[in-house]
Amino acid sequence: MVKVYCINKNPFMDSIKDQINEQEDMIVVGYDSYTVALGKEIDAAMVIIDIDSFPNDKAPAVIKGMKKSNRKIIAVINMPWKQRKIELIESGVDSIIIKTEKNIARIAEILRAINADHFVLPAESTQHFISELLEAATINQEIFAHYLEKNDYQLTHRESDTAYLMRLGMRNKEIARLLDIAEGTVKVHISSIYKKLGIKGRKKVISRLNDMIL
Prior knowledge:
Elements: E1 2-7, H1 11-21, E2 26-32, H2 34-37, E3 46-50, H3 59-66, E4 72-77, H4 84-91, E5 95-98, H5 101-105, H6 107-115, H7 126-150, H8 157-167, H9 172-179, H10 183-197, H11 202-213
Parallel strand pairs: 1-2, 1-3, 3-4, 4-5
Helix pairs in contact: 3-4, 8-10, 8-11, 9-10
């Protein structure tokens, strides 16, 4: 049974909670405002947070504070996202869900995919997201590449791009689309990254990259 904790009460989150509690393999174990949630010890494998209720500068810090080993963080947000989506990805969310009736009906399916370690992007704005992510990546890529060089990780330019997007939680298919290369080529780059970093496994690589820039 997957335990789910919901943060920030409103009609949309009420519907999410009700849908989850109708499932046989998951249950909502808590449902509070974010001010109450911050003071609690949360025992849940998944935390769903309505980001729209947060002050603009609070959400990334709260998400980072909620992140624990194997815990999934799902951000719920209205359209349009603007720059906040990039901040959410970089703060460590495992998925972003847009507030639509369709996603209320699909919430159990979405949570099962996330629980299986898939990063779920909202279909409603994938192309817009990719465009903005690429724009943000061009700003941050030089800093990321500097840290790679500083740690003597001799990645090629494309391997560096791939590692950067892996760290943001992108799947191979999404990385291929972003870099305009074949998914098989992404797999080749990832294998090379494993070899050059001396570790194997996506989670271990992401952890190493995160440690590198702290």
